[in-house]
Design goal:
The protein is of the alpha+beta class and 127 residues long. It has 3 helices and 3 strands, in the order H-E-H-E-E-H. A 3-stranded antiparallel sheet has the order 1-3-2. A hairpin with a 4-residue loop joins strand 2 and strand 3. Helix 1 packs across helix 2. The N and C termini lie far apart (89 Å).
C-alpha cells in the first residue's frame, strides 16, 4: 500500500459503492422534489403512480417529503373490490391537508370576521 497524499484516504480504505450511495441519494432527493411539486399542486400521490422498479425509491422519497412537509398526511383509497370474495384492495395515498388540529385557515378566519360584521350590522350597529 502506498502512502496517501495529503487530504486523501488510502486506497485500501476507500469504500466500494461509495459513489453508488451518493448517486442513490441524488436520485431519492430528485424524486422527493418531484413528489413535493405534485403534492403542493393538490394531487394525490401513491406508490402505484410509479413503475414497480422505482417503488423502493418512492418510499424513501416520501419519507423525506413527510419530514419536510408536516401538513402531508396519508389516506387510504380503495382501488379494487370483489364483492363475491369479500376482498378489498386499498392503496396508501399521500396528499396535503392544510387544516390541522389547532390551526385556523386564513379563508375560514376571513369568513368568521365577515359573519361577525354582518351580525353587528343587522343588530343595528349598537355595540
Amino acid at each position: 500500500m502506498t502512502a496517501p497524499k495529503n487530504g486523501e484516504a488510502p486506497t485500501a480504505m476507500a469504500r466500494s459503492g461509495a459513489q453508488e450511495n451518493r448517486n442513490d441519494a441524488d436520485i431519492i432527493a430528485t424524486l422527493a422534489d418531484a413528489i413535493k411539486v405534485r403534492i403542493l399542486a393538490g394531487e394525490f400521490v401513491g406508490a402505484l403512480d410509479y413503475p414497480e422498479a422505482d417503488r423502493p425509491t418512492f418510499w424513501a422519497s416520501i419519507a423525506m417529503v413527510l419530514d419536510d412537509l408536516p401538513c402531508v398526511r396519508q389516506t387510504w383509497r380503495t382501488i379494487a373490490e370483489h364483492h363475491v370474495d369479500g376482498v378489498r384492495t386499498r392503496q396508501k395515498m399521500f396528499r396535503i391537508f392544510p387544516r390541522q388540529k389547532g390551526v385556523i385557515d386564513a379563508t375560514l378566519a376571513g369568513l368568521l370576521a365577515l359573519a361577525a360584521t354582518c351580525v353587528v350590522l343587522l343588530a343595528g350597529g349598537a355595540l
